Amino acid sequence: MHATTADLRNTGSSTSGSDAGSGSGRGFGGRFRWRVVDIITASVIGVAAGLIFWAWGLAYNPVTTPLSAALPGLQGLFNGGWLFAGVLGGLIIRKPGAALYTELVAAIVSALIGTQWGITTLLSGAVQGLGAEIVFALFLYSSYRIWVALLAGVGAGIALSITDLTLSYPGSDTPFILIYSATSIVSGIVLAGLLSWLAMRGIAATGALNRFAAGRESRALV
């Protein structure tokens, strides 16, 4: 059977539609593909955060000893300082794995410099980064409003509570578990969620994030 001119036109239209759909699929996938600038920026965030983590660790005991003496578990209010790397990385890079990567890099850097928690720092970093990562994933890496950042802080705080209660405070009684978990989550919301979102907006305002969606979004709001 010979194809008519109309048949050829219909076939061409069908093929074009298929190609357009494939192109759309490639575009969707490309949105989540890591660029070199993403890797470099996430690494810089991780290294800088790792230095802060290390300094935070030096101040931890002097600051939290009075808190835990006043009410055991209250030291969790200081824990958010170890959670911001993943949230900030996720807010800026906006790609799958960004929160986990930046938090883990920060943990590695602080461990290499030297912390009182040794190799367990790496496990904590991975779990805490995963806590924030899960929240960004639940929103399909498409929403980075302030309340999503706060929820990422909650996720990181829950993850920290799980690792700390398992590794550092095994066998703790129920009041301690509840107080430590609650204060860690509150700290995650404020120090990791809110401050990371404000930091992202502040950095974007300088023009340093012009190659990122976070920077373009900031300019659009001005």
Automatic annotation (TrEMBL):
Signal sequence region: none
Region (Disordered): 1-25
Membrane-traversing stretches: 36-56, 76-93, 100-119, 125-141, 148-171, 177-199
Keywords on record: Membrane, Transmembrane, Transmembrane helix
One Pfam family cited in the UniProt record for this chain: ABC_cobalt
Coiled-coil residue spans: none
InterPro entries xref list: ABC_thiamin-permease_prd (IPR017195)
Keyword Translocase: no
Domain of life, per lineage: Bacteria
Name used for this protein in its record: Uncharacterized protein
